[in-house]
Amino acid sequence: MSLIEIDNLSVTFRAKGREVQAVQGVSLTVGEKESFGLVGESGSGKSTILRAICGLAPVSGGTIRIGGKVIPSPRGRDFSRRVQMVFQDPYASLHPRHTIDRTLSEPLAIHGIGNSDARVMQVLEDVGLPTSFRFRYPHQLSGGQRQRVAIARALMLNPQILLLDEPTSALDASVQAEVLNLLNRLRAEHGLTFLMVSHDLAVIDHMCDRVLVMQHGRAVEELSREALAAAQMKTAYARSLFDASADRLLGPTPEPVK
Amino acid sequence: MSSLRLWLTDPNPTSRRQARLGQLWLAWLRIRRNSLAMAGLVIVALLVLVAVFAPLLAPHDPLVQDLGRRLLPPGTPGNLLGTDDFGRDILSRIIYGSRITLYIIGLVAVTAPVLGLLIGTVAGYFGGWVDAVLMRLTDIFLAFPRLILALALVAVLGPGIENAVLAIALTAWPPYARIARAETLTVRNSDYIAAVRLQGAGAVRIIAGHIVPMCLSSVIIRVTLDMAGVILIAAGLGFLGLGVQPPMPEWGLMISSGRKFLFEQWWVATMPGLAIFIVSLGFNLLGDGLRDVLDPRSSQSGSAPK
């Protein structure tokens, strides 16, 4: 049975009398411990799907089921313990006036879980941050370190599902690889299910078992990792996306001759 | 002493308490670098000390009249700042008056900003009709000149120190609500608020723990800058006879009673006026300094321990 089932989901934003259909009739399923990718250009509605799952975007049609049950609205505490999200911009997703310690122990306080001292130290080690960083403020950390803190925060409640909204697009290339490897390790260690958004097929290829290509709020094509590696796309749009990042997908290519 | 300093400035604190005290220490260092703010802090600290030790500092009882020694000029032996029209020592009255001033300031400072913060953050966070109702209420209060509204309230409630405080507090909260609402609107849709909402936090926790800290620095600065205005309004109410009642040694009241002799015995009104001036100046300087200390941008560039 699939862990996440999204059926015919539509999201419509209303602003000043104008309606914007960000997502139109998208369906997807993600199995347990699977890593599923959503890829597409800016404004294709991929991040909106994640936000809709979290209750941060207005769902106008379709259903979202997790573990076979339609998720309640508002989402509630059981949902929080099951699903957590890592946001795109680590500079905006940590409270600037809270220490790392406060940020990480907050979910424990909300859910009335004790022993926060030991848990905070444990999760810092899990994401590869020195425990001496515990009482620093976000502005005292680099972008990669901040994103590790954001990942640590998402892990505090031991969720089953991690929603990743372009977790590395704000980071530079070397840090990007570190964070992706960290995420892969954590997925193996904690048995997590990933639903990951990216505009970069190379990142998706590194992380995901299956990928859904999106354009203009609609699903274009679903590909397995094997199909992606063998460049077996059926639609022209998926192929153009693939061509744009093919050189990085197929490993390091020789320098172009000048 | 130096080991304590090392413990406070340790970049890698080992406990929550040490981290919090270290932050306070850094804030203290920042304010100490600002000489004007320190001057303001010294004036405010002196006000507190004078109020606490008034019975020890005052040379005379502020209420005992001696009609044989009325309207003596400053510098008279035994009456350093002179005496008023009932022969009471002006210095002693100013010293005791600091207690009333501090009492008024203290009560206003714990009521008006708290009320304003609450209304502003709730309005900004929930939006919609809650926002509309609360902000129109704020507009109504803002539409009246403060002193006039305070006068009207005191006239309804009756004169007296508590009613004066109540009137001042009820007229002082709208600017705080406006500031808090504006700050709330800028942070309510940020990712870190979305993250804590996703963790299952309720509205009370989000507002109190995550939004209020973002509003606090601008509100604190506004409070210290407003304190001068509060002192003046309290003095104004006293002057009009609607605040503290005679024979209490309130500064505004003292100016009011000295008005009759302003040309011949200038010191009766001038000395309490000077006291109001100095204390207002102290709060203004402190407010300006706190702006530098609490502003997140300046603290970001100045304090990051490496």
From TrEMBL, chain A:
<dbReference type="InterPro" id="IPR003439">
    <property type="entry name" value="ABC_transporter-like_ATP-bd"/>
</dbReference>
<dbReference type="InterPro" id="IPR003593">
    <property type="entry name" value="AAA+_ATPase"/>
</dbReference>
<keyword id="KW-0813">Transport</keyword>
<keyword id="KW-1278">Translocase</keyword>
<comment type="subunit">
    <text>The complex is composed of two ATP-binding proteins (GsiA), two transmembrane proteins (GsiC and GsiD) and a solute-binding protein (GsiB).</text>
</comment>
<comment type="similarity">
    <text>Belongs to the ABC transporter superfamily. Glutathione importer (TC 3.A.1.5.11) family.</text>
</comment>
<keyword id="KW-1003">Cell membrane</keyword>
<feature type="domain" description="ABC transporter">
    <location>
        <begin position="4"/>
        <end position="241"/>
    </location>
</feature>
<dbReference type="GO" id="GO:0055085">
    <property type="term" value="P:transmembrane transport"/>
</dbReference>
<dbReference type="InterPro" id="IPR050319">
    <property type="entry name" value="ABC_transp_ATP-bind"/>
</dbReference>
<dbReference type="GO" id="GO:0005524">
    <property type="term" value="F:ATP binding"/>
</dbReference>
<comment type="function">
    <text>Part of the ABC transporter complex GsiABCD involved in glutathione import. Responsible for energy coupling to the transport system.</text>
</comment>
<keyword id="KW-0472">Membrane</keyword>
<keyword id="KW-0547">Nucleotide-binding</keyword>
<dbReference type="Pfam" id="PF00005">
    <property type="entry name" value="ABC_tran"/>
</dbReference>
<dbReference type="InterPro" id="IPR027417">
    <property type="entry name" value="P-loop_NTPase"/>
</dbReference>
<protein>
    <recommendedName>
        <fullName>Glutathione import ATP-binding protein GsiA</fullName>
        <ecNumber>7.4.2.10</ecNumber>
    </recommendedName>
</protein>
<dbReference type="GO" id="GO:0016887">
    <property type="term" value="F:ATP hydrolysis activity"/>
</dbReference>
<keyword id="KW-0067">ATP-binding</keyword>
<keyword id="KW-0997">Cell inner membrane</keyword>
<dbReference type="InterPro" id="IPR017871">
    <property type="entry name" value="ABC_transporter-like_CS"/>
</dbReference>
<dbReference type="GO" id="GO:0005886">
    <property type="term" value="C:plasma membrane"/>
</dbReference>
UniProtKB/TrEMBL annotation, chain B:
<keyword id="KW-0653">Protein transport</keyword>
<feature type="domain" description="ABC transmembrane type-1">
    <location>
        <begin position="98"/>
        <end position="287"/>
    </location>
</feature>
<dbReference type="InterPro" id="IPR025966">
    <property type="entry name" value="OppC_N"/>
</dbReference>
<feature type="transmembrane region" description="Helical">
    <location>
        <begin position="100"/>
        <end position="126"/>
    </location>
</feature>
<keyword id="KW-1133">Transmembrane helix</keyword>
<dbReference type="GO" id="GO:0055085">
    <property type="term" value="P:transmembrane transport"/>
</dbReference>
<keyword id="KW-0813">Transport</keyword>
<feature type="transmembrane region" description="Helical">
    <location>
        <begin position="36"/>
        <end position="58"/>
    </location>
</feature>
<dbReference type="GO" id="GO:0015833">
    <property type="term" value="P:peptide transport"/>
</dbReference>
<dbReference type="InterPro" id="IPR000515">
    <property type="entry name" value="MetI-like"/>
</dbReference>
<dbReference type="Pfam" id="PF00528">
    <property type="entry name" value="BPD_transp_1"/>
</dbReference>
<comment type="similarity">
    <text>Belongs to the binding-protein-dependent transport system permease family.</text>
</comment>
<keyword id="KW-1003">Cell membrane</keyword>
<feature type="transmembrane region" description="Helical">
    <location>
        <begin position="224"/>
        <end position="245"/>
    </location>
</feature>
<feature type="transmembrane region" description="Helical">
    <location>
        <begin position="147"/>
        <end position="172"/>
    </location>
</feature>
<dbReference type="Pfam" id="PF12911">
    <property type="entry name" value="OppC_N"/>
</dbReference>
<feature type="transmembrane region" description="Helical">
    <location>
        <begin position="265"/>
        <end position="287"/>
    </location>
</feature>
<dbReference type="GO" id="GO:0005886">
    <property type="term" value="C:plasma membrane"/>
</dbReference>
<dbReference type="InterPro" id="IPR050366">
    <property type="entry name" value="BP-dependent_transpt_permease"/>
</dbReference>
<dbReference type="GO" id="GO:0015031">
    <property type="term" value="P:protein transport"/>
</dbReference>
<keyword id="KW-0571">Peptide transport</keyword>
<keyword id="KW-0472">Membrane</keyword>
